[in-house]
Design brief:
- The structure is a homodimer of 293-residue chains.
- Chain A has nine helices and twelve strands.
- The first copy, chain A, is α/β, with parallel strands linked by helices.
- In chain A, the strands form three sheets. The first copy, chain A, has a five-stranded mixed beta sheet.
- In chain A, strand 8 and strand 9 form a beta hairpin.
- The longest helix of chain A has 21 residues.
- The first copy, chain A, is globular and about 55 Å long.
Chain lengths: 293, 293
């Protein structure tokens, strides 16, 4: 089954051909310019590919409410020219009969890990990306969480660690998770690019402490069967054992599941299996889901 | 369709006969004694009632994992005699062919509000009970959230308000949501029974502040279409406008949905429509779901 995948980012678009097993056969990427130009490049790539469904994991915020007149729109983005752009409509007009799976990039990545990756076969998982920003996608009882809007997991307020007096980076919430722990916050707090901080720098212990605090909240609200941490910051693999330890400390034995209370936690909070393919495989997963609906 | 409902609490059991519209025809309650005695009272009540399904909303923690050998057990409760008791098994043995819907009391209450109450017809909602403890049940894309265990929403750590120096009441987490804002915490902090605190006491402003902080987290993780606040503390109706205001302040316009950003918020965070029938109607909802599976 030939599936099309689009990873729509604010900086670049990636388009690819793959299949329902998550294999990627061919890919191409180009910078995000105007909607018109960008969408024409999409058509150029897919026009002769005979795909049976298309998945689109998209930067946001986007409208996912099927009942809404503006379903399929990119909504309040500051990105020039893309505000209130009907991206699904533009594609549907060109390929009227093609099933299109549309969701946030991070929901796509979550679905990709469930279909093809670290959470394969599970009906419950959380995918978190920690990089320039922090976002999360969750699968609950086999479905992506949407609801009123879609989760914005990076914007929860966290309690500050006593020795941390950083004012926070988020223009909306100051010291929310993203404001305390995304890449730009690390850089501003320590006055150095995160990549330049040595592996044993105290920055990473603090980072793990905040990530674990957030994960505890997700465990207590979403009860995921697996937590997958991706994004640029998580390339710092030394974070994982610290996150495991702090998550156990914080939950303090209250959630009596060996996945959390024992050393099995190293298989509960994990690195993405799809690695840097998470985005495009996520879009493939959205295409696969659209085909099966 | 005659449905049976059991609201199993640590102090008392309520049993009832109702229907798929949420009507309750007959009810009876008795104290929670030993499992054997209590279960026999259940059989006495239902034996001649010709019900077609039974719902059981149960105090916890309980095992809801259908793949597990101990599905249907009450697990680590400190309640004498009930630890590791197979309550579903005991009922199944007596009524081998009856579909039984089994879940936490608070998941039942959430389902009840979605089937019959304030969230009727919605595929997404959050029900929170704030009383002696704090617990939450959520419906996501039409399904109750279970996952690894089940949510334990009252045990998230919250950031303390600057003017609050209370040490917290939770033996596991100190200043988690339950440790800061459940009834016993209010009483210990202010040295008076919550019921005796006048309506304009500063306790309620602080209470609303903590509740709003927790609701913001649920909005950002679960994205519910409706939030229903029940339990003894929420009998203090003056809390609602304060919660609405603090929730808007905390999200700070980031979730651009008029349900939250406008005065419509008074219809977004609401009191349970089923009121004190929440528990038993929740059990009816579990019976209805069991019958339709």
């Amino acid at each position: 089954m030939r599936l099309g995948a689009i990873e729509a980012g604010g900086t670049k678009f990636v388009v690819a051909i793959g299949d329902e097993e998550g294999n990627v056969y061919e890919r191409c990427s180009f910078p995000t310019t105007t909607p018109k130009e960008t969408v024409e490049k999409i058509f150029e790539f897919f026009d002769d590919k005979e795909i049976v469904a298309l998945g689109l994991g998209c930067f946001g915020p986007i409208n996912l409410d099927l009942q809404s007149d503006t379903y399929g729109y990119i909504t309040t983005t500051p990105k020039l020219g893309w505000k209130d752009y009907n991206i699904v409509g533009a594609i549907k007009e060109h390929y009227p009969n093609l099933p299109i799976g549309f969701d946030t990039d991070v929901n796509g990545a979550a679905l990709g890990e469930v279909y093809f990756g670290a959470a394969k076969g599970l009906d419950s998982a959380l995918y978190l990306t920690i990089g320039t920003g922090i976002g999360g996608g969750a699968i609950v009882e086999g479905n992506l969480v949407h609801g009123l809007l879609h989760p914005e997991m990076g914007h929860m307020m966290l309690a500050m660690r006593e020795d941390d007096h950083y004012k926070g980076k988020c223009p909306y919430h100051g010291t929310c998770f993203e404001g305390l722990a995304a890449g730009p916050a690390i850089e501003e707090r320590w006055n150095r690019s995160a990549k330049e901080l040595p592996e044993n720098h105290p920055a990473w212990d603090l980072e793990a402490w905040y990530i674990a605090q957030a994960l505890a909240i997700y465990v207590l609200t979403l009860s995921p069967k697996k937590i997958i941490l991706g994004g640029g910051v998580m390339h710092q693999k030394q974070l994982f054992p610290m996150i495991h330890k702090y998550l156990q400390e914080r939950l303090n034995g209250y959630i009596q599941k060996e996945e959390i209370t024992t050393e099995k936690i190293s298989d509960y909070v994990v690195y993405p299996m799809l690695g840097d393919n998470a985005g495009i495989c996520g879009a493939l997963a959205l295409a696969k889901m659209a085909k099966s609906l």
